[in-house]
Amino acid sequence: MKFLIALAALLALAAGCIRDDSDGRPDCNAAEMTARLWRNNWDPTAFWECTTANSPAEPRRCPTEGMFSEATRTCINWADWAWTPTCRPPSKE
C-alpha cells in the first residue's frame, strides 16, 4: 500500500501537480473550467462544479456510498476509491 501511495505522489509530481491544502474550490474564471468536475480536497464524498465562467464553483455531493474519483472525475463506489495527492486547480496557480 505504501508503494501505491508513493507511486501516486510521484506521478502527480511528474504531471506538474502543485500540492494544494485548500478545499480545492476552483475560481471558475474561464469557460474551460466548466468542462469538468473538480475534487473537494477536504471531503471525498463531494466535488465542485463550475456551471458558468466567472461565477463561484458550486458544491455537489456524490450519491450515498459514493466517493469522488480524481482519475475518472465521477463518483464511484467507496470500495473502489483510493486516496490520491491533492493538486491545485489551474485557476489557483
UniProtKB/TrEMBL annotation:
Source organism superkingdom: Eukaryota
InterPro entries tied to this protein: Chitin-bd_dom_sf
Keyword field contains Cytoplasm: no
Entry keywords, A to Z: Signal
Protein's recorded name: Chitin-binding type-2 domain-containing protein
Listed PROSITE patterns: PROKAR_LIPOPROTEIN (PS51257)
Keyword Transmembrane helix appears in the UniProt entry: no
Region forming the signal peptide: 1-19
